[in-house]
Amino acid sequence: MDFEYYRNDEGAPANSNRQSLLASGWRPFHRELDWEFVWQLLCHDRQEFTQKSFNLASNFAEILGRHNYTWWANLLSVVSDNTRYEVEKYWNYITPDPLSPDYRYKDILSTETPIVQFVSRNSIPIDYVLNRLQEITVLRVLDVLGCPHIITQYYLERDFYFPVEKFVNWERLDVLNTVYAYWSKNDVWLQINSFDRGRRQYTLLAKNLAPLVNKATHDLAIMLSGYQTRVGKLYSQFPIRSFPEDIQNFTDLVQQAILNQKQLAVLVHGEPGTGKTAWTQAVAKEILVPLGYVIFILDHDAIANFVPPTYLERICIIINEADNLAQNRATEVAQYNNKTEHILSLLDGTLYQSVIDDSGIHIQQQLVVLMTCNTTERLDPAMLRKGRVDLMCEFTQRFV
């Protein structure tokens, strides 16, 4: 006769998961006695410490002093589940808790992986690209940090740890609940949450993440346009020394201004084929990237919805064909879009500094905007006012 119908399988999945956790390299975490911690309990929580100690001793005395059971039955009761529970509860009280993140840390950077792209014909996937950039940043920070000091996971009311000497990478780490990792040298915490279909959320917490983010985002470039969007490295076909002498002299002025100013806007104009776009890429490649700037190349579709990420300290925005974007608002064409206002607020800093979000990373950003146009006649006069565009240059010689 088959009695499977009456069998209780409620604990089977949990036990299976725990076995898979142990099989994947995780080990039970055992609390260690810290006499300094015990002394602190005696000094500051003496009444509670005394009461819990007497309660545990009373339980043992009651078990061992029972007369209606044989002596060996009383000894077996000492190692029963009920007694073990009381002992573990007391042990957890007199031993320090495992290390856990300090959620008071002000710098928090989080990402879900893998990033899912939602395709739309009406707009470029700017949110996807920015989320992809944040994902790359978090994963690069983890690569910079290397192997953590400790990796723990709490599952089925038990603490587990993963031997750091066996750690390979985060993708191969089995995550059933919430995983914590800590780098004592950098004072950085990582929290990993697991979701359905293999998705995970990585959250970095630290007092100061900016140096790690700057190191992780070195040489990154992002292209946002209606034709293609990508995150990678910047390529420049022509070096600065290949440009005419007057352009090289202007480049020296731009470089000095980049070093001296927190925010800089540069506008170069000239007929097609004079090397304006090639010059912006050369400046970004040879001057800005070595200084730690993250390069954003935006077209007319992207500029209308772009807000600089707050966790990046140095940002360079390249806007090609600015005369088609920041058009004179007195013309009929410019009245049908708000791209001119968006560029003006971007140059003023009011676009992203007027409202500050309390969460995440907030640092004093350095912004460089490089713009090209064929003619300045179609630009809105407000854009050329003093304080918005710091340096201008006309490219007159045929270059490309």
From TrEMBL:
PANTHER family: 26S PROTEASOME REGULATORY SUBUNIT. Pfam families: AAA. Gene3D superfamilies: P-loop containing nucleotide triphosphate hydrolases (3.40.50.300). Residues 266-395 form the ATPase AAA-type core domain. It comes from the Bacteria. One of its GO terms (molecular function) is ATP hydrolysis activity. Coiled coil: none annotated. This is AAA family ATPase. Keywords: ATP-binding, Nucleotide-binding. It comes from Brasilonema sennae CENA114. The keyword Manganese does not apply.
